[in-house]
Amino acid sequence: MNAQPLFSRRDFCKATGACFLAGVCAGSELAFPLTASRKPTGALDLVAIDRARILSAAQHYLKESPIPITASTSSRSAGGKHDYFSEADYYWPDPKNPDGPYIQIDGLSNPNNFLDHRRFLMRLSLQVPALTAAWRITGEQKYAAHAARHLRAWFVNLDTRMNPNLQYAQATRGSATGARFGIIDTVHLVEVTRAIEVLEDSAALSKNELDDIKSWFADYLQWLTTHPFGIEELDAKNNHGTCYVMQVASFAHLTQNQDLGAYARQRFKAVLIPDQMASDGSFPLEINRTKPYGYSLFNLDAMATICQILSTPEDNLWTFQFPDGRSIGKGVAFMVPYIRDKKSWPHPPDVMYDKEWPMRHPALLFAGRALDRPDYIDLWKTLPADSNVEEVLRNFFIRQPVLWVETPSRTI
Known about the structure:
Layout: H1 9-23, H2 46-61, E1 85-87, E2 91-92, E3 103-104, H3 116-138, H4 141-155, E4 168-171, H5 190-199, H6 207-226, H7 228-234, H8 239-255, H9 258-276, H10 284-287, H11 292-310, H12 328-340, H13 362-370, H14 374-381, H15 390-395, H16 402-405
Parallel strand pairs: 1-4
Antiparallel strand pairs: 2-3
Helix pairs in contact: 1-9, 2-3, 3-4, 3-5, 5-8, 6-7, 6-8, 8-9, 8-11, 9-11, 11-12, 11-13, 13-14
């Protein structure tokens, strides 16, 4: 189909109104970027904190060969061997019609779904950032070289590369060969793209290979922003809409697509904060689901990652707020007491994996540094950095903070 402009007239009006309201917020010190007026948070030596952890993981991953998308196929996929395929998590056989289309049971993952491609992608999202972080802190080329092997298999090698679309993601047996909500599966490429940016300073990838990788992400961005699934996912009202914007921000940053970067900033201010956040900083659309605690943290991490990727001195998403106080800072402040003391959470527990949360959430680290809140960073340090639980890996997508905070940033 022909490309359609993502930034509609409706979005423009919402963005303009959001920025105007934030700007006229009388007496609100957070209405405008205040980076220059804030005292910097005390020195944080992430390399010292994570060195042993990074090197232990990287040593392990040096022994693992790439497993690309073509290593497994499913007869239920409507695509080819280079097409990513997954099945919708919360869909199960209908007891009233066992041979008919699957039905949704929110929050309960079906372990009998085809999961190979998602697991391969999560594996990539563990390996490449850890190997890149190891190269970043040691300078040893073996780590960068092995990360590059994985990237070639997924994005360069014509025999093994993944097609740059998610047309067959989160299919539902008996009713759909793919769905717009399958786009959330590539949240696991967000930290991979950050690793690619860091690896540009190594000799592990040639210029042609880097160009090929960036071309893959440019093609994927084109699909995300023009295919009906992408256009529908953009308007998702909960964490799906947030993760869509986060992915656009991340991939636009890698490919230096300034128009889409600017669009993602406006979407954050005009849609994500006003449409998803209550005046107390909570996310009602997450709280009303069957995993209110985990989904609230997931959505907060995604919003914080958008701020980390896209904030500039001229357009600081960390300090943007509405007259009633809604802002990323308000969102973090709402969740911090319940991260510190989960027993005080006033909502029902998650129906699955409730005991696995919280983790070492990037929202705490990113906001702690951006908003000069060392207490957030102190809390972040006390939390587990890693998990072997697949559900946690699926919803915890920033695992190597040294790539995000210890590396000189660039803006788009």
